[in-house]
Amino acid sequence: MPPRRLRACHECDWVSALPPLRPGEKADCPRCGHTLVRRHYRAAQRSLALAIAALVALALGIGFPFVSFQVGGIGNRIELTQTATTLIGFHQPLVAIVVLLTIVVLPALYLAGVIWLQGGLMRGTPWPGSHALARSLSHLNPWMMADVFIIGALVSLIKVAGLAEVQLGTAFWAFCAFALLLLMTTQSIDGDWMWFTLAGEPRAPEGTLAAQCAAPQGITGCPTCGLIGRLDGRGRGQCRRCGERLRARLPHSLQRTWALLAAACMMYVPANVYPIMTTTSLGHSEPSTIIGGVVDLWQMGSWPVATVIFVASIIVPVGKVVALAWLCLVVRRSDELHASVRTRLYRATEFIGRWSMVDVFVVAILVALIRAGSLMSITPGPAALAFAGVVVLTMLAAMTFDPRLIWDPPSSPRPTSSASQGSSR
């Protein structure tokens, strides 16, 4: 009888034995419902094909005109990369870097890594650097925001459509296809199969028991490849398969989360007090804050766009800060009756955080596109950098929060050392 493959859930620390899976099936943690493994049909071929198609679409999106506008006989046409480079001319290099990284650079690196990695797996001999690439893929995933950029582009075009004639270029449709293909590529990655093919499946440490928590057994699951590894007396270790550092719990998780939330709150004040952009029309300049822009859009009758901006720029960041702060406060008083609800809240905050970048992308697109001198132009305000900082800080806060703390018994100290051993199952 083959040995069972064991996994420790990254969200509740429960050790489970993986059942045999067919393509299209998945294995969920019986304690918190987190998906441990999802099996795909012909995972390497599917990911490779999608990644190549996505890169081709990205090349088309960069090489052709993105969008153009015309008003009063004066117009402008921009390419995709100009949404970032134009910001540099307005002394906003950090915002430009964030925009360029999230919509072009990081997705391109991710897709190139997928092609290199899956190509090597298909030929039966992984190419050099495959282990490092496989470790990097999961870390890049949260920071790729092509889909958020598309929403920002649609919001921008709706705002401009009432003032000027807008034409969508070839690059706009190519980038829409790219965003969809990139999303499909990330979802097609079968990490369990990938790591098994790369480095096999070392057995779990001797004495590992299923249907129990991992920390009291002195073990933990690798956050990158999922393999269970043994921890030393200080609650540290290293994955035998991918080399990732192992921790019983993320070091100083609550302190780091509190610090990042405090920094986000500090940045949120100038993000709402200062103008996020200034619109010049017929020589008259009018600065606009985030909430002021929402009010103007609502008064103009564009309530769907106003709702999107209000939710993404006000509700989401504030809700995320409040939710994470509440989780940090109650985590030591958690019990299993409420732990599942709190875990779902954590998943929601982790998922929605990146969508706040919509407002930053709207500013980047409008600043690059609306360049008609004193007739009509838009310049970025200081709030753009502050709000981008809020988005990044809240995303980091969610990443540093360890959801396994929600499931730890209230009276028990943070796991750091090995406990008694049981018989292997």
Number of helices: 14
Number of strands: 15
Beta-sheet strand percentage? 5-15%
- Work out the radius of gyration: 24 Å
Head-to-tail CA distance between termini:
12 Å
Query: Secondary-structure element sequence?
Result: EEEEHEEHHHHEHHEEEEHEEHHHHEEHH
Sum up the overall morphology in one term. Answer: globular
Largest sheet: 4 strands, antiparallel
Q: Low-confidence parts lasting 5 or more residues at pLDDT below 50?
A: 416-425
Q: What oligomeric state do the depicted chains represent?
A: single chain
Strand order of the largest sheet: 13-12-15-14
Overall structural class, as computed from helix and strand content, comes to alpha+beta
The mean pLDDT is 87
What helical percentage do the residues reach?
40-55%
Account of the protein in words:
By secondary structure, this protein is an alpha+beta fold. It is 53% helix and 14% strand. It has a four-stranded antiparallel beta sheet. Strand 1 and strand 2 (15-18) form a beta hairpin. Helix 2 (82-89) packs antiparallel against helix 3 and helix 9 (290-299) runs antiparallel to helix 10 (303-330). The longest helix has 31 residues, at 93-123. It is globular and about 75 Å long.
